[in-house]
Amino acid sequence: MDIVQFLARGRRVLLALALLLPVFSAVAQVADTARHMAGIKEVELTDVEVAPQAVDTKGWLLLDQDVQQELNGAVHNLYNFKFDRADRQFRSLRRRYPEHPMAYFLMGLSTWWKILPTNMGTTQYDRTFFAYMDTATTKAKKLYDADKHNYEACFFLSAAYAFDARLHAERHDWRKATVSSKRSLEYLDKSKEANDLSPEFLFGQGLFNYYAVWIADEYPWLRPVLFFFPKGNRDAGISQLRTVGKTGFYTAIEARFFLMRILGSEREHEETAALNVARQLVAEFPDNSYFERNYAMLCFREGDWANCEQASKSILAKLNAGLPGYEGYSGRYATYFLGFLMQYRYHKLDAARDYYQRCIVFSETLANTSGGYYQGAAFNLGKLAEADTDLRSTKRYFQMVVAGGDRTAPSYKEASVWLKGHK
């Protein structure tokens, strides 16, 4: 790897680190010193705790219990993908507090969750999303300029810039992503004096503690650069995310969402714990396609066939009904799981073929045919065709497996061997 490649890869991973810190939690962070590349100034994330009474929080909607009670239904609607209802409630908040950033940020967050279920593939909401986050930063900056100790303003500045950076990074606009990340970290640093005001602020600290260790382990070539960042703590990070998931308000669902992903990752191998989190999320937000498809996947991994089947059929029913967030990605998961169950659990081979073929259609429609469920569906169709001595179909499906498949997968190797013997 030459130095240009090193810096290019390092910039992206360091950007990921910067983005992990401030999403929702721009106030409480870890000790030590952090530096960012490309001229970003040194950011000292000192672990300073200030008693709540030492900070004037008058007018802070973030800590206002009445506002939390009012928005409880709106936040639930957001994560249950009832976007129209949630947005109406957020607009009502905007009418009453037109100069406050909260409503604009929440409407931007609502837009973010319209993008997420597409694996960030859709761009139709980008302009709206960036507009909401830009307005949130403008309103928050005005509050901050009026009072340099308005840490709530710093919270929204850091969070809004972080989300802005995240989407620019997804769109590979590294210049804009880096600029927004720099600004997010700067306001994160400014807000360090308000660390102990709310459990909400543990969210970013928990993410940093976990992912700082993860990045150092997964990218050992970056360790010399990561020397300039605070050290993470895996166990503390997971514990903090659990705490926020139980006691937070605005950040609770995001914390549980990350817990589900972290615990179910190859690194942690705690699928049972991840499944428990996913089950809770689906029970509370049954129409969130992202939660439901991850629940189905974790059930599949854990061999919970009955719940996997139920969730997969639910996904397809909601997709057919046109519910928000239920689209090709969710359909791809569900049809593969159902095809597998029809083939191996119920031995209903015609039904299995139908589901696998639908999985392939979903994958091709999404232009997502490199490995994964597409490769698995094509391989299983090939095996079914081979059992029927339909060599023409077997060859066709196995060619699909090797065309863009994962070369390390057993299905790729078996399909390759078969094709070599049937030229």
Automatic annotation (TrEMBL):
Task: Output this protein's name.
Answer: Tol-pal system protein YbgF
Its lineage reads: Bacteria, Pseudomonadati, Bacteroidota, Cytophagia, Cytophagales
Q: Which organism is it from?
A: Hymenobacter nivis
Which UniProt keywords are given for this protein, alphabetically ordered? Signal
Signal sequence, start to end:
1-28
Supply the Gene3D superfamilies for this chain.
Tetratricopeptide repeat domain (1.25.40.10)
Say which domain of life the source belongs to: Bacteria
